[in-house]
Design goal:
225 residues; alpha+beta; BirA Bifunctional Protein, domain 2; 5-stranded antiparallel sheet
Length: 225
């Protein structure tokens, strides 16, 4: 959208400074930097990306909740630093209740910018449904995860089980995929990708290559794509 500004060098400088000064007093003194250079631009991006997302699929949401909170949940972590030092934007499925659901993702961190598609750490019922769908339609899974456009754009990443999952044939030809605990395609990008004023259109173009994977996952989980 003409005249709209998204992320800038100041975004990355703020995140660098936050990493070096991850405490509440410093954040309070620099909250305006967070609002001006990270939260504000992210919310503008989400608003402008909504129409592009709807073209990809009408069943994914672009709302203020798409921006992950800057505050860390430290309740069960040894690391008690209060703030995240990266920004995450997650356009999740309309039927999802949490981040562990199919979605389109954007990660912004000094030295690490990437986009992702798929599902990260799905809960056990969803994980089993995806594995069963791979067994039921291996050809569809291959098209989704190994198709030319997808393979040129994304790399499948994530955690794996050390052994084949219980209840699945250890000799299955797609057993390496059945061992997956995450079903995500990741594309590393440069910092300039997110400082480009045409970010919504470029983001849509990248995500489009991941639609076969997203469609497969939605089919597996019996939610509309």
């Amino acid at each position: 959208m003409s005249g709209r500004r998204y992320f800038s060098k100041a975004t990355f400088q703020f995140l660098k400074d936050l990493k070096q000064n991850n405490d509440r007093a410093w954040f309070a003194d620099n909250k305006s930097r967070y609002e001006d250079h990270l939260k504000g631009p992210a919310l503008r991006l989400i608003e402008d990306f909504g129409p592009e997302l709807n073209k990809l699929s009408p069943h994914f949401m672009a709302t203020p909740r798409s921006l992950f909170r800057i505050h860390r949940d430290t309740r069960f972590s040894k690391d008690k630093s209060p703030y995240k030092t990266a920004a995450g934007v997650h356009f999740r499925h309309e039927q999802s209740k949490n981040a562990h659901a199919p979605g389109f993702y954007l990660h912004i961190e000094p030295g690490e910018v990437f986009v992702g598609v798929g599902i990260w750490h799905p809960e056990s019922p969803a994980l089993r449904a995806i594995r069963e769908h791979i067994v039921e339609d291996g050809a569809a899974w291959k098209r989704a995860s190994r198709g030319k456009k997808f393979a040129e754009t994304f790399e499948l990443q994530g955690d794996h089980l050390k052994r084949p999952p219980k209840g699945f044939d250890p000799e299955h030809p797609l057993v390496e995929d059945l061992r997956r605990k995450d079903f995500i395609g990741v594309r590393p990008l440069t910092q300039s990708f997110v400082t480009d004023p045409n970010l919504p259109a470029e983001l849509a173009k990248t995500y489009k290559a991941g639609l076969p994977l997203m469609r497969f996952l939605c089919d597996a989980l019996d939610v509309p794509f």
